[in-house]
Amino acid sequence: MYIDQNSRVLIQGITGRQGAYHTQKMVESGVTVVAGVTPGKGGQEVCGVPVYDHVSDALAKHEIDVSMVIVPPPFVLGAATEAVEGGILLMVIITEHVPVHDVMRIKAMTSRKGLRFIGPNTIGIIAPGQSKVGIMPTFLYGDGGKVAIISRSGTMCHENASNLVNHGVGVGAVVGIGGDPIIGVDFVEALEHFRDDDTIGAILLIGEIGQSREEKTAEHLLAHPYPKPIYAFIAGRYAPRGKKMGHAGAIIEKGAGTAEAKITRLREAGVTVAMSTQEVVDELDHWQAGQA
Amino acid sequence: MYLREHQAKEILRTAGLPVPASQVVFTPSEAAEATRSIGPCVVKAQVKAGGRGKAGLIASAQSPEEAAAAAQNILGQTHQGETVDRLLVEARLDIAQELYLGVVLDTAQAFPMALLSAKGGVDIEQVAAESPQDLHQVPLDPLQEGIADPDLWRSLWQKAGLAPELLDQAVEVTVKLAELFFKAEAFTLEINPLVVTKQGKIVAGDCKLIVDDSCLFRHPEMQGFIEVDENSLETKAKKIGVTYVSLEKNGSIGVMAGGAGICMTTMDEVADAGGVPAAFIDLGGGISEENMAKALEIMLATPGINGLLLNVFGGINNCEIMAKGVRRMWPRLKDHVTLVIKMRGHSQEEGWAILRELGVPLVKHGTTTEAVKLLMQEIRAARR
Question: Which of A111, A205, B260, B283 allows an S-S link to A247, with CB 3.0 to 4.6 Å?
Answer without folding.
Answer: B260
